[in-house]
């Protein structure tokens, strides 16, 4: 739609069911029909440099956490690069795809898969939902409206960096930040370290046992 017409900013496409839900780097997102929030949001930017694209991830993650906080979700955390956790279980996955021109991002399509009223998940999925955590059903359409309102607020902070504290808020919720943790690199090698920051390019910065700091991109490091 964005390629063939002039879309209104914050146009949303919602699916009641996905048969081929797509996650980061080709991974799969599974969802029971009519139980969850499955949507893509179109956002247009003006004079937004590619080098600052990590701010989109910050803004979207914070928006989701802020709305979930209203629903009294326990132990909310942002697991780098694109998951929202509750009680150490995955509740939400993000997939953000940008349309670029020269050195600017012209628009983003923000894909959100959020477990709302589903209670049964495959055994090998460490997943949860709003219903599982709160024991209350949630109106998916109402949640979407709340989320869109919060998205607009957080994304408005992107362009005017002097007024935003997106990174600061993101780091408050960053999963395992400053906690000694076992990791595994892309070659399967285990190592200990602790997450200390996210770089301006969106890479995870981990302090190793020898006090050196190493940066990792998507699919270059995993929690062991």
Overview of the structural elements:
The protein is α+β, with helices and mostly antiparallel strands and 224 residues long. The protein is 22% helix and 33% strand. It has two domains: 12-172, Bira Bifunctional Protein, Domain 2 (BirA Bifunctional Protein, domain 2, 2-Layer Sandwich); 181-223, SH3 type barrels, CATH 2.30.30. It has a six-stranded antiparallel sheet with strand order 1-4-8-7-6-5, with helices on one face. It has a five-stranded antiparallel sheet with strand order 12-11-10-9-13, with no helix packed on it. Strand 6 (83-86) and strand 7 (89-101) form a beta hairpin.
- Sequence of strands across the biggest β-sheet: 1-4-8-7-6-5
| CATH level-4 homologous superfamily of the largest domain | Bira Bifunctional Protein, Domain 2
- C-alpha geometry: globular
Domain module tally: 2
The main β sheet shows up as:
6 strands, antiparallel
CATH topology tier name of the largest domain: BirA Bifunctional Protein, domain 2
CATH C-level label of the largest domain: Alpha Beta
């Amino acid at each position: 739609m964005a390629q063939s017409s002039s879309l209104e900013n914050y146009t949303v496409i919602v699916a009641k069911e996905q048969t081929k839900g797509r996650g980061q780097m080709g991974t799969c997102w599974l969802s029971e029909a009519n139980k969850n929030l499955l949507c893509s949001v179109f956002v247009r930017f003006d004079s937004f440099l590619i080098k600052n694209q990590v701010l989109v991830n910050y803004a979207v993650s914070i928006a989701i956490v802020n709305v979930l906080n209203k629903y009294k979700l326990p132990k909310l955390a942002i697991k780098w690069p694109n998951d929202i956790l509750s009680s150490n279980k995955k509740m939400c996955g993000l997939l953000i795809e940008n349309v670029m021109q020269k050195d600017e991002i012209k628009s983003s399509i923000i894909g959100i898969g959020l477990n709302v009223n589903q209670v049964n998940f495959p055994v090998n999925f460490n997943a949860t939902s709003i219903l599982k955590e709160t024991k209350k059903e949630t109106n998916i359409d109402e949640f979407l409206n709340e989320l869109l309102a919060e998205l607009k607020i957080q994304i408005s902070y992107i362009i005017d960096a002097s007024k935003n504290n997106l990174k600061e808020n993101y780091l408050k919720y960053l999963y395992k930040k400053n906690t000694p943790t076992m990791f595994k690199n892309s070659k399967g090698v285990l190592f200990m370290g602790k997450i200390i920051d996210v770089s301006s390019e969106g890479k995870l910065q981990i302090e190793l046992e020898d006090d050196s700091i190493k940066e990792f991109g998507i699919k270059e490091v995993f929690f062991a």
